[in-house]
Structure formats: C-alpha cells, structure tokens
Amino acid sequence: MPGQCSRRYPRPVRAATVADVDGYPEYRRRPDGATAQKRIAGGQTVTIDSSWVIPYNPFLLRTFDCHINVEVCTAISAVKYLYKYIFKGPDQVTITTDADDNATIDEITDYLKARYVSPCEAVGRILNCQLHGLYPSVHALDIHLEGQHRVVFDPDNEGDALNRLESAQDNSKLLASFALCSSDLVATADLTYATVPARYTWDSRSKQWKRRSQARAQGQVGRIYYAPFSSGEKYYLRRLLHIVTCPKSFADLRTFEGVQYNTFREACAARGLIADDQEWHHCLEEASQIQTGSALRHLFSTIVLNHEVQDIQSLYDHHHVALADDCRRRLLRRGISNPSNERILSLSRALIRETMLKIQPTFDFTGFPVLPSDPEFSADINDLPSVVQDELSYDRVAQLAFAQQAYSSLNEEQRTVFNEITTAIQTETPAVFFLDGPGGSGKTYVENAILAHVRGHEQVALAIASSGIAALMLEGGRTAHNRFKIPFTIHSDSIRSIRAQSGDAALLRQAKLIIWDEAPMQHRHVVEAVDRLLKDIRQDQSPFGGIIMLFSGDWRQTLPIIRGASDADVLAACLHKSAFWASIKILRLTVNQRVLANNQLVSPQTQAFLTAYNEWVMHVGNGTQESDEYKNIGIPEWLRINDDEPTKLINAVYGDHATTAEDRERYWSRRAILHARNIDVDDTNTHVLGMISGQVKVVHSADRALTPDGDSHPGFPPETLATINPSGMPPHQLAVKVGTPVMLLRNLDPSHGLCNGTRLLLTHIGNKVMEAKILTGASKHKGKSVFIPRIRNRSGDGVLPFILDRLQYPLKLCFAMTINKSQGQSIHRVGIDLRYPAFAHGQLYVALSRTTDPSTVRCLLPKGHTATPNIVLKAALAHTNTAAP
C-alpha cells in the first residue's frame, strides 16, 4: 500500500480491536497515544506513534528480553505449517573446497554438505539444552481387516510359518488389543483402540500390551493410521475403532444392540455414524409404532425439508399407509361413507403438502416426486388454509372476547399502549412505535391483547420475534427469519427474498399490523432489509410500506451478537442506529406486573423483599448499581454461594429431584442453572445426568467436513470432527435418558411450538427417532407429544476453517443453559454460575431477572469473592431516556 513498508506499517489507527474479513485481529491503536522521534535511513526524522508498534505480549517481552510478534492462528493450514517448520532442521548449503592457485586441481572436486549454526543454537547445543520436543508423545496404531495383518515368515519353512501364526509371534497391535479387552473386561471397559496407549505400553518382543507403571502414569496419545473413504471396509472399521469400547474381536465391532451385522459399514449405519436413506425408513418405522398419521406426516415433512433424501418417492411409497393412518376417519367425519383407498391417499398427500408449507412456506413443489391430491377429490381439500386464509382463520368472537377481557385487566400504562396502536390502525395512520419495558412489565400480555383486537376485526396482524422462545409467547408468533425469509448472512444492502406474486407477498400486502418482539437483539441490517422488502412489495415508500409497526424489547438485555465484534461494532449494529429511528415513537412500561401480582398474595414483609429485589435488578440493568473501579458489583450475602466447584449450586437447584412431590414435567420446566460459557453448561449437564436414575442412551452423530462449495474436505478425519462442538450445534456424542429435559436447537416448526430454545421432556428414545413432550412456550403447545428426527446441522460461515456438517438430533440436555439462551424464559428456581463472570452487555441482568421467585435464586462465586463484573453499554440505553419526536 502507498506510504507503507513491506510489512504494512504504519497500520491504521482505530479505537477498538476488531477482526478483519479473514478473521485476523486489527489491534486497537489510539490516535492520541505517545509519540517519539526516530532517525531512519537517509537521515530523515519521522514521528513514531502507535500505528508503528508491532503486536506484542508484555509477559513474553519481559521474560525473553526480546521482541516476539504475537498473532492469532485462525486456520488449520497455519498450524500445519508451524508444526512442519519446527522439525524441518537448520539452514543448509552445499559448498566446495578449492586448492591454492599453485596447486594441482583434481578432475573430481570434493563437495561438502554444511549447515549454518547461529551463536544462539551453538550455545544451546554446547549446554545440551533441549531444542524441541513433543508432548504428549504419539503412538501410531496399525489397522487392518480381519485376516489381513502382516506376518513375517520364511517361505521355505512352512512349519515355521504355521507356528508363527498359531503362537501370535506376529500379533498386530489391533489383535493384541482384542486379546487385552478379552482378558481384563473391567480395566478396559471404557477403552477404545485409540485410547489403549494412554494406559498400556506396547512390548514389541512379546507383541502384547502391558499395563503402565505408576511411575509412567502419563500415557501416550494413540493415533490410528488414516484410512481414506476409498479404502472401503477399512474406512468403516476405523470409524468403529474410535467409538466402540472394549472390543474383543472383529465380530464384536460389527455388533450393536445384540445384532451382529455382516459388514462394518452396516454396523456404522446402525450406530448412526453414516447417513443414507435407510435412516429415514427406520425413523418412520419406529415412529409408526407409537403414533398415528398426523404426527407421522409432520415427521415425514421435517425429514424431507431438512435432509438430502436421495429417493423421496421410495420413502413415501414404503410408508404411505402409515402416513394416511387417520385420513379414513377424517373423511368419515365429513360425511363421506366408505371412502376408497385412492381417496384416502389423495387426502394424505394434500395434508403432507399443507404441513410442508406450514414449516417452509416458500417450498417449491416443482419436481417434487410425491403427486398432489387427485383433482377428482378436490372437494376434500377446499377447506385447507392458504397462507392468507391461515391468518384470517382466527375465531372472531373468541379473539374479541380475549381482547376485551385483557383490556379490562391492563394497567394505565398498558392501556395507553393499547389505545395508541389500535387508534393508528383505525385511522390508517402509518406509524412506527417502540415499546420499551423491563422483564415482568407485561409487554407480551398487552401485545397479545392488541393482536386479538385486530384479528377480532378480521384484519391481518403478524406476530414476529427475534428469537424462537419469544415467538412462542406471541399468539401465532414466528421468527423474523422464518416470516420474512431472511438469510442468516445479511449485509447493509441485502435484497428481498419473497417473490412479488407469492402467497407471502399477498399476506404482507394485507397486513395492518406487525409486532416485532425482542427487537434490540436483532441486527439493524435485518430490520432495514424488511423495511426495503415491505416498501417494494406494498409499493409504498413510507417506513415499512405504511404498515403499523410495533417493535418491543428491553435494551438492558442482550444486544446483537456478532462474532469477534468490539463494543463499537455492537452499538453500530443496534436498531437505534437505523435512519428510521428518528421517526419512531417510544412507548414505555415501567410497572413490574410480576411483583405487583405477587404483592397481592403475600405478606407486607415479602412485598418489601420482592420490591427491593426488583429495584436492585433494575439498577444492575441500568448500570447504576454501586461498583468498584473494575465495574464489579457486590452480590448480597443471601444470594451468594462461595465455592470453586459447582456441586453446591447444583444441589441448591436439583438436590430434591429424587424426593419432590412435583410431577416430572412441572419440576424440570421450573428449574435451570445458567452459565456464561458453553463448556460449563456441558459439565453441569453431565453432572446432573449422572444424578438421575435410568439407563444412559448414547447417540453418535455422522460428521462431515465440507468446503464452501459443498464438496467433501479431505483434511479432517471423523475423529477430529467428533471433538468439535460449535456453539448452537448438538454434540457428536449425545448422552440422554428417558425422562430428562432437553432443549431444541433448531426452529423445526414454530406452528407446532418447536423453536430454537423450546424445552422438552424425553418420553421415548429410539435408534432413529425420539419422542418428547413440550415443556415451555405457549400454553396451547405445552404437553403435546412431538417426534424429533436426526437432522443436518451446519456450522456458520467463518466459525471454522471448513463447514462442519453434523447429522444429529438437534437436542441438548438443559439442566443447565447459557445466560443468552435463557432470555425470554421464566424460571422458578434459578442457579447462576458466576465463577466465570458475565462478559457481555446485559448478561448479569438477564440472569437475575429470569426468576419468578427471587427467594430461590442463588449465585455461585469463587471462594473469597463477594462481587462480580457487571457489563453495561450505557450508550445503548441513553436513547431510551427521552421519547423521540
């Protein structure tokens, strides 16, 4: 670049550290920092400031008394290069020795190969210092198919060859591991072939594994030689050797749940380590044993929409009878006596298409192999709703009754909001509102009352939320990405994704009101894209195409989550940075209805306690609670548990699980432990699972590494992929029990209450499908039984140096969850782990405000600590202090 040296100095000054497009850090360089004068080549004097400073680590600088450039390795290629660089050896040169000018020159000249030894290296070698090392050491493990291990023998001595085979003189490490597991079932119960070197050493003379002594307790890392996919059965054998514990033979490796399979591939498929269409056949077969047609059609639609099913027609043909299980009864209830089999199947196919459109309204049936319903029986499907009809199908009388009942119970602030919005709709005055209020102020309640009022007058009102959990709390709620078909990767000028002639476009043209809850956590680019979409579809250049918009949320809670972003980047992504914010009218709710309702049921002493707790939490959220110079705030003694391990906190929340009189669904839905980090969530979930009685079922995923183009990435073997657990993706090894609570990690079907964050109770664990009851969300969904199949989960762009494709149940144990995941949920008994403190805006406030009963909240801090950091970006709150004009 002009004005820069070959190393790109001086670098640009910036107020905060950010990640560039490739993930490398652009460090903070203050423009008003210290400067110095330096004379450079040519006698020129230049001013040196922070833009010239090479990245450094103060500790390394002082320890080694020399400069060490510190950067971040963001790709596997960098790690591979550095590893090779360490072992490549010194610089070398080939030289020749020539005689004096007067000496005779031989025809053949001596060549010497020499190496350069710097003073530093010379001192290190003279003092016998260790120049490099590898810790822990790696033990290479051979792999071969049955009867294909290497045997060394004398071809002229047949007797010796037979003797060597029979006496296992040429026993392979793999065969020796089988013998080890057979001889000591207890000690090897949890060992796989790859983990044998951690506890045993290989005796090359006796060809046996021998137990490590206590003095050499630190074992090696086992690495099985790589077998490419093209090696066939050897590839699948290698997959099993990383999974199966205590294998005693090749036949043992091919056995799963009492069934011995003919090939290693079949055994891998049975364990879920690979995926093909047989998985979906087994999934539907399992489900058909315990549920009827409606649930099976939903499961079939989920499979087709979330997977690359190779032969959809075959999948339908094999299960068409089960998929139409309830259609005969449906036709009989409509007065159609003795319906033919063709008519029953026709209705079934129509209902499948209806279900698929509810899950994914933009699905294109062009080329879809399953035929539509027969035109001969079109009368059977005339009452099936379209997208617009679905929004107009609410019971008018029931909606008006609910709106009137709700209005009578609203407080003065809530009535002001209700009247403001409904008046704008009646007068058809385009307006954009923002409803600001803390948790417990009744935002959702008044929004549902407004929705019911509009729908009761046979008008279209759309309920939108930025998260799946928030969407479930609104009647007819959908996530913004689902309703507006917004891609998850979006930028400032993203274009619309809804066709002008589609049913969704027709719905948006008829809409009178859109309510968008949890708006503060949505990136403003998403909202701006919706603004452009509505202007285009409605041919109206008013904000949001002239629709009455009601955004709502609490700015004290989570703001837009951007990977690697600075505080400045987060603030720039907030909704109030959009151009239309200046025209927004801000409405406020300040009365905590939750506390007010409790005050009417409890003693004056408890009323004072609830009020004091609520006021303290509000000070935490506003950043006005007294703190020290490091923004640490004190945690009241009655809230605090001090320990370095989570056991006391776990017992405070779940210690009564075996003796409680509450039914299981109520018990698990009203408790949770909150952590700032996913790694702590996983540890707590594993701990609590061990406390619960029942047999553990372990389900493994089928993992692939893909390039951005969708091709297979060859650089990452399956055992490496198994160790990776990106945020928001299910683990490779999912351990569950019947009766345990799990959280859904994907928006499978919001219309059935299946959103990202929905908590469920497992009632059946099959090999290819799980059944569960919904624990949280809208009351109309709670208690419903649903099927959850394995689906494809993919990591986002830039998260890894490849795309991780994981076929797994989109579930995770939820005895514990992250603080961010808890937003929008009400929990009776809450444990908050602050050993690793909240690290982002609003996290501590969100954690403290989840409870419906403050007396059951407990915060875990390290021993000797009484305070914890409270991160609040006050710049995100300042604009809400005064109403916009």
UniProtKB/TrEMBL annotation:
**Which Pfam families does the record associate with it?**
PIF1 (PF05970), Pif1_2B_dom (PF21530)
Tell me its cofactors: Mg(2+)
The protein's GO terms of the molecular function aspect are: 5'-3' DNA helicase activity; ATP binding; hydrolase activity
Q: Which reaction does it catalyse?
A: ATP + H2O = ADP + phosphate + H(+)
The residue ranges of the DNA helicase Pif1-like 2B domain are: 721-764
Tell me where on the tree of life, at the top rank, the source sits: Eukaryota
What EC number(s) does its UniProt record assign?
A: 5.6.2.3
UniProt domain DNA helicase Pif1-like DEAD-box helicase: residue ranges: 410-628
Which terms are listed as keywords in the entry?
A: ATP-binding, DNA damage, DNA recombination, DNA repair, Helicase, Hydrolase, Nucleotide-binding
Q: Which GO terms describe its biological process?
A: DNA recombination; DNA repair; telomere maintenance
What PANTHER family does the record point to? ATP-DEPENDENT DNA HELICASE (PTHR10492:SF57), PTHR10492
**What is the protein name given in its UniProt record?**
ATP-dependent DNA helicase
From which source organism is this entry?
Answer: Tilletia caries (wheat bunt fungus)
